[in-house]
Amino acid sequence: MLTRKDTKSAALLQGTLDMLILRMLKLGPHHGQGIARAIEQQSENVLLVDHGALYPALDRLETKGLITAEWGTSSNNRKARFYTLTAKGRKHLAREAGQWRKVAGAISRVLGPQEARG
Fold first, then answer.
1. Contact 9, 52 (CB under 8 A)
2. Residues 70, 10: Cα–Cα separation, whole Å
3. Total domains in the fold of the chain
4. Residue 75, Cα to own-chain centre: how many angstroms?
5. What are phi and psi of 13, to 5 degrees?
6. Whole domain around residue 88: which residue ranges?
7. What is the pTM for the complete model shown?
8. SS3 for 93?
9. What is the pLDDT of residues 7-62, one digit of tens each?
10. Would you tell me the crossing angle of helices 32-42 and 51-63 to the nearest 10 degrees?
11. Burial of 117 (0-12, 13-18, 19+ CB in 10 A)
12. What CATH number did the domain enclosing 60 receive?
């Protein structure tokens, strides 16, 4: 996953992409491109999902039983795999999101308030 500011290399904490995918699927079934677009839109164009990372993550989540996939037709009339969150995936997302919020809060406390530019 990349950010708009650093398209060369952006390393997020391991598992972050998986969690974001699960979060997008909590809203309903999506195909891969739809998931990538939803993450980009929800992050206000800060996060970009590289397809080289997206599809291995989707395969990994499916193997773990956190999502299921079935073939369907996309809005532009193309054959696509649509992914759906499983009950196991919902539980996993709740745990991971709670842990991520805890870590993000701790990092925020360490960084302190944003300094004024001057």
1. no
2. 31
3. 1
4. 21
5. -55, 140
6. 2-111
7. 0.82
8. helix
9. 443 445 558 999 999 999 999 999 999 999 999 999 999 999 988 899 999 999 99
10. 110
11. exposed
12. 1.10.10.10
